[in-house]
Amino acid sequence: MWKFLLLKSHDFFVFFLEAAKKIKEGTNELDLLYTLGTLVGAWAVIKTLGMKITKLRPIDGFAAETASALTLFGTAHVGIPVSTTHTITGAIVGDGSTRRFSSVRWGVAENVILAWIFTIPFTFLLSFLIQKIFF
Fold this sequence. Notes:
Elements: H1 2-25, H2 29-52, H3 58-78, H4 84-99, H5 106-134
Helix pairs in contact: 1-2, 3-4
């Protein structure tokens, strides 16, 4: 628990140092909000992938990262655009399935997949509305 709290406090400390530096440089406030959103959102993704889908041991993480990297190299070589988050999620689910199919929390995996499906149309609509209303 303490390690988690130290990690989180360190992340926020680094964020505020970077924010102070950017404010001094005259950076836009939206950039700072974007940075904060990325910081918070990235932690949620890492927590879901590393702890909620299946229990990962160090060797499992190595296997998943290697499979994901090989997939990304292959798709980059062929010229197919893919999401790194999608590839690592698939690799983690695949790795969890090698122990037992039931060791994967399929409800969590289903939520991730549903989020992927609804994110593109939702952000499309939101971006469209913001553009029409404000610009």
